[in-house]
Amino acid sequence: MNKLIMVSLWVFSSLSMAGAQSAEQDIINHITKLFVYTDEQKWDEVQSSFAKQVLLDYSSFTGIEAAEMTPDQLVAGWSGFLPGFEATHHQVGNFIVETDDDEAQLFCYGTATHYLPNESGKNVWTVVGTYDFGLVKTADGWKVNIMKFDFKYQDGNTDLPKLIQSKATKDK
Asked: What is the secondary structure of the chain as a DSSP string?
């Protein structure tokens, strides 16, 4: 009888751990796809990664206060800026995930490299930091409702964003 109880507990424990690992992997995949789709400029997929309202906080990098916005507003900003680069590459890793039923938090490292050939020959701008994400589970899967970037450092040609803005102004 004791063996039966022990085996039952082991099976239940194993199934519970597998379910938790599956949820964690789903969340990691969701965040990874968000960055891949951003680099591929698949804006519909990027937009569908987010909940109906998102608290976006890049204040440590931009100095602009955190704000709640819709996925439409968020994607409009990114799609109006990132295509100005010839290429972007977001790399994320060192994931730490905590789940609680229908809510989750994910912490990760992030590096964003932006490439834009220009007259200076300094064609790369890199931004490094960490992210804190909040996610909610919906009928359509996990959705990001909080995205906070904690800036560590940048390197390369920090004037590349200005080049893009100036080019966009000239093209109007």
From this structure: -HHHHHHHHHHHHHHHHHHHHHHHHHHHHHHHHHHHHHHTT-HHHHHHTEEEEEEEE-HHHH-PPPEEE-HHHHHHHHHTTGGGSSEEEEEEEEEEEEEETTEEEEEEEEEEEEE---TTS--EEEEEEEEEEEEEEETTEEEEEEEEEEEEEEEE-TTHHHHHHHHHHHH-
Domain span holding position 51: 2-171
pLDDT tens, residue by residue, 70-114:
999 999 999 999 999 999 999 999 999 999 999 999 999 999 999
CATH number of residue 86's parent domain? 3.10.450.50
Q: Are 152 and 131 in contact (CB under 8 A)?
A: no
Total-model pTM: 0.86
